[in-house]
């Protein structure tokens, strides 16, 4: 049977997975499984915490390894993420830094990391999760140090350091039409008006408990496309309430994956990345133990799940 990669390549679609460096090093089955996708995102390796063991050191070993794997296997490579409030290094205790120090630190970080992977990373999630769930910009060290300008600035630095890369704003809970995606729509419209070099919006699509209506996702994609932006689904997983999952939830999950790939693609989204290579590597059991533990396309033993087959059949 064809792999996801075969059908995705044939259809000019990208179906990807988030990946980590250690299992690429250690597990040949993981490497084989990762090659069944034609796109890859560094799940953690390019975040500021993992990259910066101390203030003056960058440790690019894991990021370089994933970049090399992507290059060798001709995969679309998503860099994730230059500016975020989470997974900060332990030494970076915001109140111990002045605003001016934080501004220097972030600029140096964005320029250094985007520059390091210029030519490797096709698309960067430049800023991740900057919008608060209850509206407005989230209170983060970066907002404190710069004010609202930090987004514009980060995109500008990234563009200077990696002029070929596409630059995205990425967030969760804004997959369909809702207040949060309205807010992001306003945010990126403003950036475009100001001439900020933003190329697209990433919808994480962690479909947890009660998956969002695919028609609403399609409508949301269309409105961002109408602004001239690209849209990608960047961190997809599908998990149900473990106590009361739908009957035959792997079939329901497969239908959901298929419907998202179909409708998102019709709406003009050509890239869908699952947040892990197989269920064995999913972050979901660590994140929320009330969820079913099989959110991805390959099972714990790297065997194809109904969701995998559904996408192959669709394409
Ligand atoms: C998660 C990783 O999957 C975990 O391994 C890590 O412990 C925490 O971060 N939104 C994002 C991703 O943008 O970076 C997060 O990834 C999941 C939620």
TrEMBL record:
<dbReference type="InterPro" id="IPR001000">
    <property type="entry name" value="GH10_dom"/>
</dbReference>
<comment type="similarity">
    <text>Belongs to the glycosyl hydrolase 10 (cellulase F) family.</text>
</comment>
<keyword id="KW-0326">Glycosidase</keyword>
<dbReference type="InterPro" id="IPR044846">
    <property type="entry name" value="GH10"/>
</dbReference>
<keyword id="KW-0732">Signal</keyword>
<dbReference type="GO" id="GO:0031176">
    <property type="term" value="F:endo-1,4-beta-xylanase activity"/>
</dbReference>
<dbReference type="GO" id="GO:0045493">
    <property type="term" value="P:xylan catabolic process"/>
</dbReference>
<keyword id="KW-0119">Carbohydrate metabolism</keyword>
<keyword id="KW-0624">Polysaccharide degradation</keyword>
<keyword id="KW-0378">Hydrolase</keyword>
<feature type="domain" description="GH10">
    <location>
        <begin position="1"/>
        <end position="314"/>
    </location>
</feature>
<protein>
    <recommendedName>
        <fullName>endo-1,4-beta-xylanase</fullName>
        <ecNumber>3.2.1.8</ecNumber>
    </recommendedName>
</protein>
<keyword id="KW-0858">Xylan degradation</keyword>
<dbReference type="Pfam" id="PF00331">
    <property type="entry name" value="Glyco_hydro_10"/>
</dbReference>
<dbReference type="InterPro" id="IPR017853">
    <property type="entry name" value="GH"/>
</dbReference>
């Amino acid at each position: 049977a064809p792999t996801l990669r075969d059908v995705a390549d044939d259809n000019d679609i990208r179906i990807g997975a988030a990946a980590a460096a250690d299992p690429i090093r250690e597990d040949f089955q993981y490497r084989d499984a990762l090659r069944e996708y034609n796109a890859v995102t560094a799940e953690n390796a390019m975040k500021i915490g993992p990259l910066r063991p101390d203030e003056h050191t960058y440790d690019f070993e894991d990021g370089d390894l994933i970049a090399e794997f992507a290059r060798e296997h001709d995969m679309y490579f998503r860099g994730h993420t230059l500016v975020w409030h989470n997974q900060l290094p332990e030494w970076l205790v915001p109140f111990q830094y002045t605003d001016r120090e934080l501004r220097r630190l972030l600029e140096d970080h964005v320029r250094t990391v985007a520059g390091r992977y210029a030519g490797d990373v096709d698309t960067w999630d430049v800023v991740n999760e900057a919008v608060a769930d209850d509206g407005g910009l989230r209170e983060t060290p970066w907002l404190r140090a710069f004010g609202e300008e930090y987004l514009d600035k980060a995109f500008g630095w990234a563009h200077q350091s990696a002029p070929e890369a596409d630059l995205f704003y990425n967030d969760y809970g804004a997959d369909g039409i809702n207040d949060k995606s309205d807010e992001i729509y306003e945010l990126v419209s403003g950036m475009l008006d100001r001439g900020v070099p933003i190329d697209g919006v990433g919808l994480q699509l962690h479909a947890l408990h009660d998956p969002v209506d695919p028609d609403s996702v399609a409508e949301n994609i269309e409105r961002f496309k109408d602004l001239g932006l690209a849209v990608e689904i960047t961190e997809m997983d599908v998990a149900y309430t473990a106590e009361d999952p739908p009957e035959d939830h792997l079939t329901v999950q497969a239908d959901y994956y298929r419907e998202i790939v179909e409708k998102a693609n019709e709406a003009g989204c050509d890239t869908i990345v699952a947040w892990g290579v197989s269920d064995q590597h999913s972050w979901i059991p660590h994140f929320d133990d009330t969820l079913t533990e099989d959110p991805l396309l390959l099972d714990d033993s790297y065997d194809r799940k109904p969701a995998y087959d559904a996408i192959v059949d669709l394409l």
